[in-house]
Amino acid sequence: xxxxxxxxxxxxxxxxxxxxxxxxxxxxxxxxxxxxxxxxxxxxxxxxxxxxxxxxxxxxxxxxxxxxxxxxxxxxxxxxxxxxxxxxxxxxxxxxxxxxxxxxxxxxxxxxxxxxxxxxxxxxxxxxxxx
Length: 131
Prior knowledge:
Layout (H helix, E strand, L loop, with lengths): L1 H25 L2 H25 L30 H18 L1 H19 L10
């Protein structure tokens, strides 16, 4: 994870330079602010990866002498049949459209996002698939 962390920090340094040049040549506060936020995001991601990488054991892809078989095994659990991501996306779309249409629709969408997020998180805590 060290390589990824330094890559993000390098992007942050590039964005700092691009931000200064952009501000000097355009005097546009909106674009300058957007590039400053990109700097913050890149530095935040780079710091997190470097900070986390020191506490984790080396990954198989970090080993220069590693083989493909070193990375095999279980990666995690991914639900093959869940409908909750679809409903959550539709609820988020209703909330986003509500910003343009009216606050009443936004509040309905926010309620739907909250309920579908609960359903998505607790999907495997009840019913046939409960742990």
